[in-house]
Design a protein that fits this description.
The complex is a heterodimer of chains A (108) and B (378). Chain A is mainly alpha-helical and 108 residues long. In chain A, 48% of the residues lie in helices and 0% in strands. Chain A is built from 4 helices and no strands. The longest helix of chain A is centred in the first third of the chain and has 28 residues, at 3-30. Chain B folds into 2 domains: 4-57 and 234-377, no CATH class; 64-222, Barwin-like endoglucanases, CATH 2.40.40. The chains are: A mainly alpha (108), B alpha+beta (378).
C-alpha cells in the first residue's frame, strides 16, 4: 500500500471523528435544556446567585455577592490566601456598558 | 488518476518517506504539538461550556439582590424593608433570603446553609447537596451533627440528597427550615441576609435600584446583569483561568514554532540540494515541505482537539480539577454539556496549524533558492 493512501486514510478517519464530535455536541445541546432543568429549578426556587465552583472562601463561593475589594475583605492588610483568588478576576465594575449606578442623595 | 493529482500524491509519498526517515524526531514533534493543542482546546472547551452553564442557569437568578452595608461590610437586612421595597412601582416580588456559611471542623469544608420554606421539608430535617454527602460520607436517612453558635451540636436528619444533575449549583448546599437557620447561627428575628427582588420589566431595574438606594442609602443593589457579568469576567479571555493556562501553552507553542522556523538541519539542506540537482524546481521543494508541515500540523490539530473533547466532556476535565480545587475540601463533580463555538475552533485552527506550516515553509524557501551545489557543500 502506498504511504499516501495510509496517510489519507488516517486523516480521513480523524476528520470523520471530528465531524462526529460536532454532531455529538449538537445533539447534546438539543437535550441541554432538560438536563439543566433540575439546576435551573433550584436556582429559581431558592434564588441562587452563583455557581458552586470554588468553596474555600466566601468571596470565591459567591463572587457575584462578594465585596468589590474581596481579597482584602477581612481587614485592609489581608492579602489573598487561596490559589483560586488569583484565577478569579475582579468583576468589571464599573463597566462602560453598565447602566448608570443608582444616584445616592447627598446628606442635607 | 489525473496527472496533477498523481504529482501531488507522489510528492506526498516522498514527504512521508522523508518524515519516516527521521521517525523519532517527528514522533516527538507530533506528540508535543498534540499536547499543546490538547491543552489549549481543553481550556477553550471547558471555559466555553462553563460560561454557557453560568449564562443559562443564572438567567433564573433573582433580578436584583439587595444587600445592606455597614462600615463597608455586608450586614443583615431588616425585614421591615421588604414591604417598603415591594411598594415600589415595577417590583413584582421581594423574597427575604436567609443564608450563611458553616465551617465543618471535622472534614474542614465550607458549606452554604440556606433557609427554604419548601413544604416538603420535614421538621428538624435537612436537604444536602451531593458534595456535602460525599465529603461527610452520609446518605438519606442518616443523622449529622451541626455545631451551633454556642458550641452545642444539633442533630439533623438527612431527608434528601439533591440530585447529581444539579451539582453545579447545589454541591455544598445545606437546606433547612428558617427557624433552624436562626437557631443554628443565633440569627436575630426580623433580619434576613439579603433580599431577592423580581421585577416585571427588567428594563426598569436601574430605576428600581435608584429608588431603593434613595429609600435606604446604606443598601447595595446587585443587578442580575452584574451577576452574569461577574461570570463573564471570571471566564474571560483576558483574565482569570484563561490567562494562567493559556499563557503557558501559547508560550510553549511559540518557542516550539520558533525553534522550527529558525532553520533547517544540515542534512535537510543537503537533501534539498540533491533534489534540486536532480531537476526538482523550487516550487516542488516548497510543495514537499508544505506536505510535511501539513501532515504533522493537521494530525496534531485533529488528535489534540478530539482528545480535548473527550477530556472535558467525557472525563469531566479531570486534569483541571487540581487548578480549580485550590484549597477547597468540598469540590463539585459535574458533567459539562458541550458548547462548541465554530468561531473558537476556527481561531484555534488558524492559531496552531497556519503558524507551524508557515514556519516550516520559510527556511525551506530560503534553502530552495540557494544554488544546489552550494547547498550540498554546506
Amino acid at each position: 500500500m502506498r504511504k499516501s493512501t495510509l496517510c489519507l486514510a488516517v486523516t480521513g478517519a480523524l476528520s470523520a471523528l471530528f465531524l462526529a464530535m460536532l454532531v455529538h455536541a449538537r445533539t447534546q445541546e438539543r437535550t441541554a435544556a432538560s438536563r439543566r432543568q433540575p439546576s435551573a429549578e433550584l436556582v429559581k426556587q431558592l434564588g441562587l446567585t452563583d455557581l458552586c465552583l470554588f468553596t474555600e472562601a466566601r468571596y470565591t463561593r459567591h463572587p457575584a455577592m462578594a465585596d468589590r475589594h474581596a481579597a482584602f475583605q477581612d481587614h485592609p492588610m489581608a492579602l489573598d490566601h487561596f490559589p483560586s483568588g488569583s484565577l478569579l478576576a475582579p468583576p468589571a465594575f464599573p463597566s462602560p456598558h453598565a447602566p448608570p449606578p443608582p444616584a445616592v442623595p447627598e446628606h442635607p | 488518476m489525473r496527472p496533477p493529482l498523481q504529482r501531488y500524491r507522489n510528492i506526498l509519498d516522498f514527504a512521508l518517506s522523508s518524515l519516516l526517515r527521521r521517525k523519532g524526531r517527528n514522533l516527538a514533534l507530533i506528540s508535543v504539538y498534540t499536547l499543546v493543542v490538547f491543552v489549549i482546546a481543553s481550556l477553550v472547551f471547558f471555559v466555553q461550556a462553563l460560561k454557557r452553564e453560568a449564562h443559562e442557569l443564572l438567567a433564573q437568578a433573582p433580578d436584583m439582590v439587595v444587600q445592606r452595608m455597614v462600615a463597608g461590610r455586608h450586614d443583615p437586612v431588616p425585614l421591615a424593608q421588604v414591604e417598603a421595597i415591594r411598594s415600589i412601582r415595577g417590583v413584582d416580588g421581594v423574597q427575604a433570603r436567609l443564608w450563611g456559611y458553616y465551617y465543618d471542623p471535622v472534614f474542614g469544608g465550607n458549606l452554604t446553609v440556606l433557609a427554604t420554606e419548601d413544604p416538603a421539608l420535614a421538621p428538624d430535617a435537612i436537604w444536602i447537596g451531593q458534595g456535602v454527602a460525599r465529603s461527610m460520607r452520609v446518605r438519606e436517612g442518616d443523622l449529622i451533627p451541626l455545631r451551633g453558635y454556642d458550641g452545642q451540636s444539633t442533630l439533623f436528619s438527612i431527608q434528601k440528597v439533591l440530585p447529581e444533575s444539579s451539582e453545579l449549583v447545589s454541591s455544598d448546599l445545606v437546606l433547612m427550615a428558617p427557624k433552624d437557620v436562626r437557631a443554628l447561627f443565633h440569627f436575630p428575628e426580623g433580619l434576613a441576609t439579603d433580599l431577592a427582588i423580581q421585577a416585571g420589566n427588567p428594563r426598569e431595574l436601574p430605576t428600581i435600584a435608584t429608588k431603593i438606594v434613595e429609600l435606604y442609602p446604606d443598601s447595595r443593589p446587585i443587578l442580575k446583569s452584574e451577576i452574569l457579568r461577574t461570570y463573564e469576567a471570571v471566564f474571560d479571555w483576558r483574565g482569570g483561568l484563561m490567562v494562567v493556562v493559556l499563557g503557558s501553552a501559547v508560550l510553549s507553542f511559540i518557542i516550539f514554532a520558533w525553534d522550527k522556523a529558525t532553520g533547517l538541519s544540515a542534512e535537510e539542506r543537503k537533501e534539498i540540494g540533491v533534489l534540486k540537482s536532480l531537476g526538482w524546481e523550487s516550487s516542488d521543494v516548497l510543495l514537499l515541505k508544505f506536505w510535511e508541515g501539513t501532515v504533522i500540523s493537521v494530525t496534531a490539530f485533529l488528535s489534540g482537539v478530539l482528545l480535548a473533547y473527550a477530556h472535558v466532556f467525557f472525563f469531566s476535565a479531570s486534569l483541571f480539577e487540581h487548578a480549580l480545587k485550590g484549597w477547597s475540601v468540598l469540590f463539585p463533580r459535574f458533567r459539562l454539556i458541550p458548547a462548541l463555538d465554530g468561531y473558537q475552533l476556527t481561531v484555534l485552527f488558524f492559531l496552531t496549524v497556519l503558524p507551524y506550516t508557515a514556519a516550516t515553509l520559510v527556511p525551506s524557501w530560503r534553502a530552495a533558492t540557494v544554488d544546489p551545489d552550494a547547498a550540498m557543500r554546506s
